[in-house]
Model the fold of this input.
Amino acid sequence: MNPKLLPILEKLISCDVILQFFKPDNLPQSALAYIRYNYRMDSFLSDDEQDLIETLPPFADDIADSFRAGIGGDDSVYHLFDDGSLWLKTNAYSSIWTDARDFAVEIILPRMTLSRMDADLLRAIDMDDAVDGVRQDFFTAFAGVLHRSCHIAHCDARGHWDAFTRQLDDGQREIIEFGGTETGESEGQSFAESFTVKA
Done:
């Protein structure tokens, strides 16, 4: 990195709350991409400073993958970088993480539910077991409702779920399962109501 960039980066870090916990000489790729994207043509910097910011690697050089919400007006996106860092960009705010796994553990997993882009990110950073865990919470809750309300054995619940959702494709079914325990209970109630009517 050009040593002339360090005082500029220090200046940006001191005034941008998104960057406040980083050191100018040890920025992850996600932070450098954020800086280049937001400040390379910002009048907050002089022309010479903007030119130096322009020398940072282009966004596409270091990006490993991007995962988008892509629903309604939600423009949220996870940008995962080659060094394992993450830039979360939403309609309202941005967040920069040195390690995407830290973001997953601290932000995504405590929710106990997943969006499609959450699941895609977790799979990309080798946390498939976390995705499977949320889906297992769904099936446990679904099976519990079926057992209590319909006297269906827990081991038969998945087969009933497959039949109940046969009109959905795998992606649509998986999105429901990402709702975890809460969705498992509500889907179980819907199944139990239809089961009672048919009985």
Strands lie at 63-68, 77-81, 86-89, 94-97. The first strand starts at residue 63 and ends at 68.
